[in-house]
């Protein structure tokens, strides 16, 4: 992928001179303004995606460590076991996982496990 950089003269017309680094262009007495098309086309969308992924991570982390949801899952699991929808072995395995999550959630909040 080729990065395109344009130099625009103060008059608003494109200049045909080859462009060096932004520092070179800016030190020519202010005659040229550097317009970095790559920053607009690559930088902004990437920053937006990073922000979205951070938000998704925070939401997932909050849901994973929510004590009320974990207790609800434990109750649901117990109900499934009582009506013979899952075996005792499966019940014990999932219960241990949920109790571990609950301990982690309480530890993260600073409450005693």
Structure commentary:
The chain is mainly alpha-helical. It folds into two domains: 5-45, no CATH class; 65-109. The protein is built from four helices and two strands. It has a two-stranded antiparallel ribbon. Helix 3 (67-82) runs antiparallel to helix 4 (88-109). The longest helix has 28 residues, at 37-64. It is elongated and about 65 Å long. The two termini are 53 Å apart.
The average pLDDT value, as a whole number, equals 74
The termini sit apart by: 53 Å
What about the largest sheet? 2 strands, antiparallel
> What is the share of helical residues?
55-70%
Radius of gyration: 29 Å
Can you tag this structure with a few keywords?
113 residues; mainly alpha; 4 helices; 63% helix
SSE diagram, text form:
Blueprint: E1 5-9, H1 22-26, E2 32-36, H2 37-64, H3 67-82, H4 88-109
Antiparallel strand pairs: 1-2
Helix pairs in contact: 3-4
Structure at a glance:
The protein is mainly α.
